[in-house]
Amino acid sequence: MTTTLSKELAFVKDLCGTTGGIAMRYFNQGDDVSQVKDKADGTPVTRADKEIERYIRDALAREFPLDIILGEEESRAEELQVKSSKRRWIIDPIDGTFNYARGIPIFSTLIALEENDDIILGVIHNPALDDLYYASRGEGAYKNGKRLSVSSISDLSKSMLNYGSPKRLLELGYWPKLTDLIGRTARQGGFGDYLSFAFVLEGKAEASIEVGLKPWDLAPMKILAQEAGGVFFDFDGGESVFQGSCVIANQAIGKTLREFLLS
User: What distance in Å separates the CA atoms of residue 46 and residue 158, rounded to the nearest whole number?
Assistant: First the structure.
């Protein structure tokens, strides 16, 4: 592991042990659903979201005081607009709040580190399933210490395609292309949240498509996909986690989907 990121990755992995404990305390009590509130954008937030983000922010500020922190629950406009060589941590305290509040164990804490407008470190932690995914630039992607690699399937007709919210795909005008892809692929899964991407990282699916997301939903996915040997691109043809959409895929299927979706 590179000297520059070994400290950061070790710190975040340890941090996830504590944040996972906070998440599971509320999850096991089963009472956080009564505390769900809707934010201005209509998405839910719980006590656990706020407590975990505050803990992560405080810990990162102590350990890396010169870095900027962009989080889902507390960020200010200037933290979102940063475009420089200054490092920025991007965090989602609970990705999958709908699941979390309903007692469904498909949720995670997402943490990524950006420098020079690129994601150089990413972590996904699901404490309910005791799964920890992590990657840093040039060092590979891992799940619970085991190296991850995308699949080698190159034929779209033999591929499994994952997708997120059908409602967002419909509202943003991508439904016709999705239905076309459904007809061209062997199997499809609407898992959503981190799991849709994780199956691609593990070589259990060939591609995952998502739209209408925020940078904290996508940031760790980019570096994990790239370090697992796959591709990440947005619907503008770039590789931005700020564009709001993404495709994560293996190399061959990614090339096919890029031509299909961006034409």
Answer: 40
